[in-house]
Design goal:
By secondary structure, this protein is α/β, with parallel strands linked by helices. It has 14 helices and 16 strands.
Length: about 375
């Protein structure tokens, strides 16, 4: 059984200790970071930098609190993520979203290099076989995983498991390309995009959102670079008419997420990784999209644990008890209290990723909740 610490987002007193940064300070003290991290030890603070237009990420003020807590032990933290778009562009996005050395108090680096192919193959499970783990995450001895909890078009729910699996794995490998990277989680088989000319509205949103600029239209025909494509699925998500399809399997994807997380975590010794889930600005989409919609659920608070399965189950359990917010995507889909908001929004069996992570031995869905 895992132990999960929680602080509510509600501020009931006009004092710093009741603010969310103040509560994060107390959570970091409660979990006792000295049990996990050593003086002079390099520690990766893994987060998501967001996208141009997607600003509802883990705020820099919280990242700085984590960095400062690690520094107080004498550890040497840095803030990191893997390449989601071209590396230099992604660092600019991080800076625009407020994540830089000055704001977080530590270096901000890309875990798999500027080209996103600096990685090491690691054994995974039956679905993935092997997967390309970012070399910096592979090499670093310790990690704090700061996850923004939100919906996800393919995972349904995105928290620590998705952050570790898709964020600790590169998009591509130098030799085997997307098939060894996170594209192997996104799709099945050859994963070739299917275009239906009769449905296409020629709005070119797919071309505009492609992070590799690999899509083009010639003579009103859809074309893309099959070799360069990361199979991220952004193009299919934004297509308003359903003219693009990337073959996938929901259950397989959820199990692959758990396998990816297992592969990444296998590169760390026991008790060298802790997890912080931020249930704030909970939007229906991933932070990799070019917009951030209004929250679908009210801010709930912050969880912290050394058990990835327990913290995910605790987060989901809280979300299942939450009210859908008016004037949001929840409202548009006429979701009411008592319904599973994330499932109703995205129609994905997201709980499979948590169940599979437990089956693989990554933690326990049974947990003790300690409110701070």
């Amino acid at each position: 059984m895992g132990k999960v610490y929680f602080s509510s987002a509600r501020a009931r007193k006009w004092k710093y200790d009741d603010s969310m940064p103040g509560k994060l300070d107390r959570l970091l003290k409660e979990i006792n970071l000295s049990k996990y991290f050593e003086p002079k030890e390099w520690v990766a603070v893994k987060t998501h930098f967001g996208s141009e237009g997607a600003h509802r990420i883990v705020r820099p003020v919280f990242l700085r609190k984590v960095v400062n807590a690690l520094k107080s032990l004498g550890a040497k933290p840095f803030v990191t993520d893997t390449v989601r778009i071209k590396g230099l562009d992604y660092l600019e996005v991080a800076n625009h979203n407020g994540i830089n050395h000055l704001s977080v108090g530590a270096p901000v680096v890309l875990a798999d290099g500027l080209y996103g192919n600096d990685n090491i193959m690691v054994k995974a499970g039956d679905i993935l076989g092997e997967i390309a783990v970012a070399s910096l995450i592979y090499d670093v001895p310790a990690m704090v995983v700061c996850s923004h909890v939100k919906g996800h078009i393919q995972a349904g729910y995105g928290g620590a498991i998705k952050n570790v699996a898709m964020g600790g794995v590169s998009s591509s490998h130098r030799e085997c390309g997307w098939k060894c990277g996170r594209g192997a989680m996104h799709t099945v088989g050859e994963g070739k995009l299917i275009w239906d000319k009769n449905k296409c509205e020629y709005c070119y949103q797919c071309m505009e959102i492609c992070p590799l600029e690999s899509i083009e239209f010639k003579d009103e025909a859809f074309n893309y670079n099959v070799e360069d494509c990361w199979r991220c699925g952004r193009c299919t998500r934004v297509c308003p008419s359903g003219a693009l399809l990337l073959p996938s399997d929901n259950e397989r994807f959820m199990r692959a997420l758990a396998e990816g997380a297992m592969a990444v975590l296998s590169t760390f010794k026991k008790r060298k990784v802790i997890y912080i889930n931020f249930l704030t600005e909970i939007q229906p989409e991933c932070d990799c999209m070019p917009v951030a919609d209004v929250p679908v659920i009210q801010d709930k608070g912050i969880f912290i644990s050394d058990d990835i399965v327990s913290i995910e189950q605790a987060s989901v359990d809280m979300l299942l008890k939450s009210y859908p917010l008016p004037e949001s995507a929840s409202d548009e889909k006429e979701i009411v209290k008592g319904e599973d908001i994330f499932y109703k929004l995205n129609q994905k069996p997201y709980w499979i990723q948590i169940e599979e992570a437990e089956r693989l031995g990554l933690g326990s869905r049974k947990y003790e909740l300690v409110e701070i």
